[in-house]
Structures are given as C-alpha cells and as structure tokens.
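Researcher: Next sequence.
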Amino acid sequence: MNEIDPSAPADPARRGFVCGSGLIAAGSLGIVPPAVRASVWAEGTDAPEKTDLKIGFIPLTDCASIVIAATEGFDRKFGIKITPVKRASWASVRDGLLNAQLDAAHALYGLVYGVQMGIGGLQSDMAVLMTLNRNGQGITLSNRMRESGTTDGPTLAARIARDHEPLTFAQTFPTGTHAMWLYYWLAAQGVHPLRDVNLSTVPPVRMVDNLLTGRIDGCCVGEPWNARAVQSGAGFTVATSQAVWPDHPEKVLGTTAEFIERYPNTARALVMALLEASRYIDMVGNRSKVARVIAAGEYVGTDLSAIEPRFLGHYDDGLGHSWIDSHPMQFHADGAVNFPYLSDGMWFLTQQRRWGLLRHEPDYRGIAERVNRVDLYREAAQQVKVPMPSDPMRSSTLIDGVVWDGREPARYAAGFAHRYEQATA
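Model: Next structure:
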C-alpha cells in the first residue's frame, strides 16, 4: 500500500584540519597482529562492554558506511560485530533507539535533535557520535508539474501564487533534514512552506509511488529515490540538497545518551569502525563495488543503475540536463565529513525554531555541546589517525546568500522573512 506514514510527527575541506595527536591507549591497534589485538580488547580497559550491536538504517544510498563496516570487517577490527537492521521509516528508527531494540542508527540529524527537544513526543537525551555523510539528497517534482510548465523554482512560485488549490509536498520526517531542505528551498523561491502548500510525511521507499499515483506533487528525499523517480518517469530533480547548502551535514550516527553512559568503549569502537568504513567508501576505486553491495535486497533494494551514477557524482535531472556535481555525496574527505560540528547541530535547532517546532528560544550552543559528542569522537579519531578540525564551528553560505557560522543563532533564526510567526500572523 502506498500510504503516508502516520507515525512520524582534491578536497578543499581538508584545509583547516590538523592531524590528531596524543593517541589513547592501544591507539595503534590497526597494525597489531589479530591475535594480539584480540587479547588487548579482551583484557584492556578499552575493551568494548557490548560486542554485538544492532545498528538501524533506512534503505538509502547514505546507509553505506553502516553496511560496509559490517560486510568488510571494519567492525571486527575493533572488537565488535555490527548487524545492520533495516527499518521502513524514520519513525521506526526513532522508536527502535528509544526502546533499545537498536543500539545506534543511521539517523537524520534533525531527528536526533527533535527527540532531544521533545518535539512531537517524549523527550529523551540523545547523542550524535559522528556525521556519516554530506550532500546527495534531492528535491523532486512530479512529471505532471513539468507537463504544465512548472520546471524550476520561479515557475513553481508563479504557479502557487496563481492557483487556488495548494500543491502537496512530502518530506520524510517532520524534524529531519529533508523537511528542512524542502522548507529552506521553498522559502528561497518565495513560497511559504507552512502557508502556501500542503505538507505530508512519507517514508523514503514510498516517495516514487506517491509521485506516480498523484498523491504528492513534489518531495524531498535521499538517494536513490530521486534518481529512481527520474528513471521511472515519476518526476524530475528540480534541486539537489547541495544546491541549498554546499557540503551540508546529512545523516549522523545517532544513539541515546544512556547507551554511551553504559557502553562508552563500545561507542568509541563503533565510531572507529565507521570512520574506517567511511575512508574506504571515499576511495574512488571502491565506489562502484560499494554501490553493488548496498543495492542488494537486504540493504537498499533497487537497481544498481539507480544508485551508482549519483553515488559517483554523475547527475541527470530528467529534463535533459546532465553534469558532474562539484559537491557530490561524500562519506569521509579525510575526516572533514565526519566531525560532529557544534554549528551543524545548532543550525537544525535554528530551523526548528524558525518553523515553530520549538516555541521557545533554546540554549543553542549548550544543547549542541551535550548532544554532539565531540569528546568521544576525538578519542576515536585519534586512534585511527583521522585529522581533527581546529574549531568545532564552521561557516557556510546557503542558497539565499545568508551566512551561517553559529554566531547569534537566535538572531539568525528570527531573521528570515518566511518563518512560523509570519504564517500565523
């Protein structure tokens, strides 16, 4: 059934990175013989407290680091065993984390922060252990829109201003990245997402069917479902997420604060395994192999032709335009991708505030410092010799020309013409 999910409320980035120093005990385990390494994990103070881990994921291209860590043995290198657990929706990922069916998960950045803030459900303290990838999502419009002459932001805005019947746009989770990319892009076109269109929540794997059947007119979703929409004739790519925010943070390794408190060594080992998997994925010669692995039915479950081109940075928008993207999906970039920048977490709080999901001003930096576990990430990165940035904040310019650098977050959130207060005035 195609039902909308009712349960969900040369790399320039290397610059500014410095190689970690002061490796913690057993920091060179990667070059220790396996028998000796096993003994260190069994007897040393860094031994994982829990060795068998269930890690949730959604069938999306950017689940790759979870899958590769398990299938290529990066987990066993650090004394743990990862079992990837496929989930149908982001709501089920959230619930799996909160009821401890999952130890950690490939998760939406904004999902973790939404639970931390108690948006749409019970509050629970959460943690971001690392960023898994950046870029590589998309906004798709249905081919019915193209047939009526709506092919870009300006023609979409003109149509919405002209027509009395609102169009319906879908995202994958109300506090998640796809909702925020969609809202930000619409607002940049002069369309108020809370006033001018109807919104719905649809699991990623259902997006193409919902486009085909006319239940939605557009959506924001991760790959390969934008590419699949182009292939199937369901829609065309009107914008990539990297066009909204070049090198934006996307999925994270999320877990509960309680998990880290109970299993700190396990959490560290998990980050180390995923850092090595991420490094492996970003090696150009490995990309095609990785695409074949994740295309399998137990993971993403779609044709390789829907995954591989955009995974390699080759885009075809379905309107006759093709290009090699200058900001493709990346998983490591010598650690630039993986560091859990405080400013990244704070940005999602600003957008949740902007769109009325948070009705009161939060302690932006204080919350980010609690959720984004820079301390644990630093220890893991030092062990596997991944460079660290010199500053936990970074600066970016988004599609509307507005700069985000983590300074004055309350002023930033209130400074947009299109926001919740405007929609309800």
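Model: The CA atoms of residues 342 and 369 lie 7 Å apart. The first helix runs from residue 34 to 43.
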